[in-house]
Amino acid sequence: MRSLFHRLKSNARRLSAGVALCACFEQAAAQQADSRPAPPFDGLTLSGWRALGDAVWTVEDGAIRGRVGGGAQSFLVSERTWADFELELELCNDAPGNSGVQIRSHVNEQGRLYGYQIEIDPSARAWSGGLYDEGRRGWLDDLADDEKARAAFRGGEWNRYRIVCDGPWIRAWVNGVATADRLDPLDLDGHFALQVHSGRDTNMRWRGLALVERGAHRWVDVAPEGNVELVAGRGALRIELAADARGALALVEVTPNPAPRAPVHCGAGLVRTSDGWRVDADAAELRGAADAPRRELCWIAWDGRHALFVDGRQVVDWRAEQGWSVPARFTWSGATPARLRRLEREPPRDR
Questions:
Q1: Does residue 270 sit within a domain?
Q2: Which residues span the domain enclosing 251?
């Protein structure tokens, strides 16, 4: 029988190893926590943000408050940028003025902010949660035909917004009700910003900004003569052409699902065929501006949904009745493009 001394010595060794192992786990957890990105707002200061315009920005009771100053269009802009993410926050309007949450936005050389905005609209129009392109194209996804979405926002109360960006796919919810749902190719990353609209009646609060990063996508140049593979039904291609160039872009499905018996015309040169999809670049709707030396076609195929753009202007938003997620490839035939780019996913960025 082992002596009491040896048993105590053995137990001490096991205890010491356990303590050391716990210390290692704690150290690893601490390092992992330190590597996580800080939230956009720390609840105490405006560190990491800068003001554009003359609005007055303060922190009150853990919330950012933005109120009208001299009446100019104003924004509180994050210093850093984000790409793919899920953002949740609460906001409350203490006055009837218009506002918004900017995502993937940019500031030009003149100091003017532009980019995607998730609307805050306490007016009778009630388009809160819609998608607006600030300083550029205007409304991308309004709520004119969505009565349920228009009823989601509660003026003068705290409202919860959820915003998800995944590559070219932008979605938003207000108090759990879906509002914006749009495919768009222009911006894959950018700044957050909070808006105090020009005028005299905007007084907003934002709090509880919680962010989960989901990596990033980027446009990558590919050889014009090559096929571009598409995996799991998600992909996009941008083709820059001379204004008078002719040709066709096809999306050939390895296993069509479902295959129509006859071609289905989906609008603006987009046709569903027995072996996939085809876009005729010479279609009248895709000609672009008459005086433009070049034009850019962009085709996004995303989980059974197809969006087609000419020079950033959407001409097709077609949704299949059934899911579409088979591997496929884009092909281009016709005039050699000046530039051909595909959409690729990249891992989360180190900060």
A1: yes
A2: 217-346
Question: How far apart (Å, rounded) are the C-alpha atoms in residues 204 and 159?
Answer: 12
283-316 residues labelled b (16+ CB within 10 A) or e (exposed)? beebebeeeeeebbbbbbbbeebbbbbbeeebbb
Does residue 222 surpass a pLDDT of 70?
yes
| Token duo for residue 134 | 């600030």
Instruction: Let me know whether 88 and 173 are in one domain.
Output: yes
* Ranges 61-65, 78-82, 117-121, 301-305: which has the least confidence: 301-305
Tell me, what CATH number does 131's domain have? Answer: 2.60.120.560
Q: Distance (Å, rounded) from C-alpha 273 to C-alpha 176?
A: 38
Same domain as 258, residue 139: no
| Model pTM score | 0.84
Q: Are residues 286 and 236 in the same domain?
A: yes
- Strand, coil or helix: 21: helix
Contacts for 62 with CB less than 8 Å, ≥ 6 apart = 43, 44, 207
Residue the block writes with tokens 């509880």: 208
pLDDT, tens only, 262-291: 777 877 788 888 778 888 887 877 876 666
Lowest mean pLDDT among 50-54, 98-102, 284-288: 284-288
Q: Is residue 260 part of a domain?
A: yes
Residues 159 and 224 placed together within one structural domain of the fold: no
Q: Are 211 and 87 in contact (CB under 8 A)?
A: yes
Contact 93, 84 (CB under 8 A): no
Alpha-carbon distance 329 to 24, whole Å? 48
Domain identity same for 140 and 77? yes
